[in-house]
Amino acid sequence: MKRLSRTIMTAMLVALLAFSLVGCKSTAKVEPIPPAPVVEPAPEPVAPAAPVPEPAPAPVPVPEPVAPAPAPAPAPAPVAAAPVEMELPYGVKEIVKNDDGAKVFDLFIVHTNDLNGNIYAANGGLGLAKFSTALKAGRAITDNWLLLNSGNVGEVPAEAAMLAAEVVDELGYDAYTPQAIQLATGIAGTKKALPLSVNALDANGYLVAQPYQIYDFNGFKVGVAGLVAPKPIQGVSFTSDVILDNAQYAVDLAKGYVDYLVILSDLGDKGPITSEMVAQNIDGIDLIVDGNGSAMAKTVNGTLIVRADEQLKSVGAVQLSVANDEVKAVYPMLLPAADVLEPSKSAIAKAYEPIARAMGYTLMVTVPEDPAIVAKIGATPVVKAAVPAPAPAPAPAPAPAPAPVAPAPAPAPVAAAPKAVEYPLGVTEIVKNDAGTAEFDLFIVHSNDVHARIVPADGGMGYSKLSTMLKMGRALTDNILVLDAGDVSHGTNLANMFEGETVGVLLDMLGYDAVAPGNHDFNYGADRLVEAARFAEEYSDLKVLSANVLDENGYLLFQPYQVYDFNGFKIAVVGLTTPDTATKTHPKNVKGITFANEEIFEIGQMAIDMAKQYVDYIIVLGHIGMDPDGASGLTTDKIVSRIKGIDLFIDGHSHTLLKEGMKIGDTLVVSTGDYLRNLGLVQLHVKNGKVTATYPMLIPATDVLNAKDSALAKQYGITDVPNDPQVDEYVGFMSAQLSDKLSTVVATLPENLDGERANVRTKQTNLSKLITMAMTAESGADFTITNGGGIRASLKAGNVTMGDVINVLPFTNIITVVEVKGSDVYAALEHGYSKLPEQNGAFSQTDLQVVYNRFAAPGKRILRVLLNGKALDRNATYKVATNDFMAAGGDGYTMFGKVLSEGSLLSDVFIEFLKKNYPVK
């Protein structure tokens, strides 16, 4: 615990309370608040005439000093005594909330506001009796609690005032902003809960409420000061006009001695001085618990401002993770009353129910009312009534001379980096630009379905030229966010052979901010993807985001979202992964993993509604797609049609090309196609925290690869987009590593395997038979049909290297299982055999036995098809293994049915098949 001399602490607190001291008298009434004796350096205090009929104050108004009075013998040294209770200015005594000595703990600041007399579970509010039950449950877990209320508790008639005060005490409130009746009478009513105000003065300029309180949690000091919005109360005035002018020095000095500073305010966002105005103009306030407004959690100038809904329609909490007297993390949260009143209908309760069950309890129960509260408030509501006829406040008396709190003006604060805010689930805000500009353009660069086209291929621009473009952009502005919507790390040998590591490094080199994992990003197994996400978290700024992927215990597998700050403009990026992943990668890759599907709509709407309290713009980075025939049925257009409040949806998975984006409701949906054939760009014009214009566009790879012939490039004076030498160096290094891998011997063959072009495109060969055998065995399908054109080379007898197999199957095709009716199998074989005896890349290579007559009329060439010696039933439905190219209708195979599952890379499967059946000798 920190040890400070009383003189230093007193001076600090006097400065801390400059909200009220500057412009106020230096001595106060004996009742109810004692004065601070250190304000005047040469005290010869003369007590003023008592404004209420009470005994005159003592000549020296020092309130109960902590040190013992002089005695003939010194006080004996205490043995293992509790810390000396320190008395502070204005008679305030530090309250020790927890002294168990823990250095690492979580502290919960629970807050409510504007109860407005709604003490029962009515109007959508929680009600005090159920709230009490929830509070007692929380306190049973930890002593590290502060319970605060701001705003109007509820103006009540005199006969109900004491009852209301008793209920507030029974609930265990620590502090609250005083009500009008308390300010008017100077009577608190509560015995435990403290009404706090540093700026409410009586007609003689004295404080009418305790200004602050210090709470000690294992040596961690939390200062709470009350700040009350001006109210028309007879005989009461407010120092609103001097708050902003004099408080900075106080806070600067206070921060040297206290660990966390909370302002309990009912200023709201409507009056002449708002909570945001206080935060904007005063540096160093850690938290403002506010009232008189809508629920929110917002960071202004490094200060977190929080507010719950009125009438207990929600309860707010700020969780502080404290280690060695320092706050390491801050998590603002909001719990809607509906989730407590009806947990069985609560998406939050459903989402966390697996966690609760693992801890031995359930959330699916009705929260009972606390009998102690019910006994006090009974069944008769407290009648709401106005405070007895407060006349308009008279003109204030001439302001007394300011007390000499500080001998010199406060020094100008040195501009500090914005304080990173932490959000629910441990997410820390990333400040991308803190120049403070109120009007600027923000550029969101996006890609999707790159499928590891690292170098220019399949019409894509490649990462080297993209890196150059991004560097050019960042040379002009810091307002850039670079995002990828998944299926980025798998698809070419340069990525596959290193389990995606090559792509991960390149994404970091290019400065990507976030990626949503796609189904093919799971092709190396979920453990590998989670490992990559953790590695990125530790060694780079890249975030792997997905809010709907859960492990076997129901916990989120990845970080669900990230918040980025551009000059105070907050952007939340939320990741989503298609539930089709369960069938679009090998089952072993996602064993024990659940992909939330229908739950997205209920939880998603609630999450978006809550997020709007924290941020200004919401982006969903979704590997979801537009294909309505997916196994899950979940599509991007369904999400944005049913979940309101998404500003931008960056889509992937279906390889959809949206040249100018697509507006669905108020949501802009964008997608670039695939393979980096296009680069997406969304330009936002931001002014005073709001988006005033949005411009989506695509930059085609052709304009990048051939800039000298591009009209778009000419508009910007660009004649060439060179490669990035650093990217080229890394890709060259990894290509050399790939060559070494490809030279690895994987099998020893006893004979040549025929993959000659003329043969595999007209008939079965020993090589094609092994390939189809491997596909059927790996996939668990009934049989295989693949295209002869996918087999590109032969294998010679003897040692076979990994590179040899890649030469045979170079297309990075994925084994895919489709559902096909027997009659359509006949149609597929008719199509595959249609050009015989000519060579045909679509020729059907299969492990079925096929009897055909090439001279027969089209549609009648296939005479008989046998599966394991039995005739294929034309009316039955079969599971057929093929490759993803053919499953999508490639080579004219449009008769295949819906996709049941996707598995591993065909070349990988065949390598493992050869290893097992033809081991190296």
Characterise this structure.
- The protein is an alpha/beta fold.
- It folds into three domains: 6-67 and 82-377, Metallo-dependent phosphatases (Purple Acid Phosphatase, chain A, domain 2), CATH 3.60.21; 422-737, Purple Acid Phosphatase, chain A, domain 2; 745-917, 5'-nucleotidase,  domain 2, CATH 3.90.780.
- The protein has 25 helices and 44 strands.
- The protein has a seven-stranded mixed beta sheet with strand order 3-9-10-12-13-15-14, with helices on one face. A seven-stranded mixed beta sheet has the order 20-26-27-29-30-32-31, with helices on one face. It has a six-stranded mixed beta sheet with strand order 7-6-5-4-16-17.
- A hairpin with a 2-residue loop joins β9 (212-217) and β10.
- α1 packs antiparallel against α6 (240-254) and α21 (766-779) packs across α25.
- The chain is elongated.
- Residues 1-84 and 379-418 have low confidence and may be disordered.
Biggest sheet, open or closed, and with what strands and sense?
7 strands, mixed
Count the domains: 3
> How would the global form be characterised?
elongated
Strand percentage: 15-25%
CATH architecture descriptor of the largest domain: 4-Layer Sandwich
Instruction: Round the Cα radius of gyration to an integer and report it.
Output: 36 Å
Helix content: 25-40%
Number of strands: 44
Mean pLDDT: 81
Report how far the terminal alpha carbons are from each other: 71 Å
Task: Tally the helices.
Answer: 25
The largest beta-sheet arranges its strands as 3-9-10-12-13-15-14
CATH C-level label of the largest domain? Alpha Beta
Query: What is the CATH topology descriptor of the largest domain?
Result: Purple Acid Phosphatase, chain A, domain 2
Low-confidence segments: 1-84, 379-418
> Which structural category fits the helices and strands?
alpha/beta
**CATH evolutionary superfamily of the largest domain:** Metallo-dependent phosphatases
